[in-house]
Write a structure and sequence with these properties.
By secondary structure, this protein is an alpha/beta fold. It is built from 11 helices and 7 strands. α2 runs antiparallel to α4 and α3 packs parallel to α4.
């Protein structure tokens, strides 16, 4: 490859090197999967009748795709082998209700579930939605939220209830990975936006129980080929159907030099009364990474789109500042 006789030799050598790299990578993934399945998981003896009653009380009917992936997950939970499954589906496809069904399954068996999200705002949203869902269908399921900004006394009381088994479902961010967060009997860990967490972080969550089942969720479209190569150690379930009445999701990829085109589209949508949000990899400019940052984007949009109210939300804001910003966005005081 370094000293080819001609272009064809160089191309063939590069192909051989790439094949070997992917082959070895796949072998490692398969060894990880085999090793993982050798660790005995828990067979969750959930209440089938209670689960059916739960789905029947929902204010909507599960789609065929939701029913299919729910069966796959529940079958895994029944098996005495550790579950390591990726749940993929577009925004609005109903991943959360599938996860709620899996978590309720362990609750009916007298066990606990945890749900980890990458941001405190998303974790809080999940906690509220889950609590409201179970209350709406008349179920007594205690859902609590653990955040890094909790007061010491409230945190101590919550952790005492958790280790005593008084909490059924605990929702949080990386705060769930702290050494003092001990469960009475953790049997299922749900990880939202799984690509935001590293392997070691997922392993810590697994260690905080009796090798609990792992259900990772992502809204990022993953082609079959990529799911095999990048997630070969996981079983993959796909919700490929949107609930009735949901508008289809359009995912478009634009190159960096088409940013003006993207902003123009967003400007048009916002001018018609819609709202938008822009996500960047960094908060501020970095010498190590040449990628877009939220602060620069915020300042740029303020200059180029002065007719719109634009907010800035990131992890370095205080909890009160985050709450105020989200409230402004929810009340449409902010357009972006």
């Amino acid at each position: 490859m370094h000293f080819p006789k001609d272009a064809d030799w160089a191309k063939a050598a590069r192909r051989s090197a790439a094949f070997e790299e992917f082959y070895l990578f796949q072998m490692r993934l398969q060894l990880l999967k085999i090793a993982d399945q050798q660790f005995s998981g828990e067979s969750i003896d959930y209440d089938v009748v209670a689960l059916k009653a739960f789905t029947q009380k929902l204010p909507f009917t599960l789609t065929a795709a939701q029913q299919k992936v729910s069966r796959e997950i529940l079958q895994d939970q029944k098996r005495p082998i550790h579950m390591n499954r990726l749940l993929q589906g577009d925004v609005g496809s109903g991943k959360t209700i599938v996860a709620a069904l899996a978590m309720y399954a362990v609750v009916t068996a007298g066990r606990q579930a945890a749900m980890m999200a990458p941001t405190e705002i998303l974790a809080r949203q999940h906690a509220i939605n889950l609590a409201n869902l179970f209350e709406q269908v008349g179920l007594s399921v205690r859902v609590e939220l653990l955040t890094s900004g909790m007061r010491v006394a409230a945190r101590r009381h919550l952790l005492e209830d958790l280790v005593n088994g008084d909490i059924d479902i605990l929702v949080g961010t990386h705060a769930l990975l702290q050494p003092d967060v001990l469960f009475h009997h953790l049997s299922l860990a749900v990880i939202d936006e799984q690509h935001r967490f590293g392997v070691s972080q997922r392993a810590k969550l697994r260690e905080n129980g009796m090798n609990p089942d792992i259900l990772a969720m992502t809204a990022t479209p993953i082609p079959r080929t990529l799911s095999i190569t990048a997630y070969g150690e996981m079983d993959v379930s796909i919700i490929d159907q949107l609930p009735n009445g949901r508008k289809p999701i359009e995912t478009k990829r634009l190159s960096h030099n088409q940013l003006d085109q993207a902003i123009a589209f967003v400007k048009e949508q916002v001018a018609s009364g819609a709202q938008a949000y822009i996500v960047t990899p960094l908060i501020e400019e970095s010498e190590a990474l040449d990628v877009q940052n939220a602060q620069a984007m915020y300042e740029s949009l303020q200059l180029s789109l002065p007719q719109f109210k634009i907010g800035l939300l990131h992890g370095r804001l205080s909890n009160d500042e985050k709450a105020e910003m989200m409230a402004n966005f929810q009340k449409t005081h902010c357009r972006f």
